[in-house]
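Field reference: sequence -> structure
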Amino acid sequence: MTTQDTAQAPVDLTIEVYTTSGRPFVSAVTPEGPGDVPTWSPSSATLIYGDHDAIVVDTLATYDQVDALADWINTTGRRLSRIYITHGHGDHWLGLARLIQRFPGANGLATAEVLARAEFEAADPSMAGYWDAIFPGEVPAAADKVLPQLLTSDTIDLEGSELRIIRVAARVAEVVLRDERAVIPIGSYNTTYGVTLSLPSVVGRAGVVRVLEPDLSAEERQALQRSAETLQRAVARMQETRAAV
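Structure field:
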């Protein structure tokens, strides 16, 4: 019997995305009217699972969001083994403490760059105070925060399948320099909505060559249009404020 015979054969993996709704947060800015309440944008976490185990990509920020995410993960019947953190800002990793409470034995992982940013945000008083101020009582206090562990390789094994860690900024540079005409998610100005949207796009030396817009229902297009209008109003207010200074 060879090593190849005894190696675990890869299983089919399933990928599902959990998305929260936008939610209000505490802000010193006074709303200017209906619909202008400070609102944290919808956030997402991606679950990748096989026959038995699962990996979730990113946590959410507040206790209620993480509890809802944990309930959703439980519906798959898989064991959450690892939590991969893609970004060092708090809304990507603050939920680690709560999620590990819900799934004892799971551990957070991050690359050296991401871990360094998370450590900075956990230790810096102004950054730690920022999350406490906008979500008072809804995120872990300093002593209760859990940081991810250092991921020492560029791959994560899940039931025989290799999940590769790709550093997006470096990958974008490669695509442009080599004129690969590869499909990657990237932000570009959308003339239909008048704002920048991050969508799968064909990218090469000339930049974004083609945007691959997803099929949206009428309701989804209306929601996107409302979001675009909100961004446009915010930009207009910033321009007015700058002009008045």
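Note: Confidence is low (pLDDT under 50) at residues 1-6.
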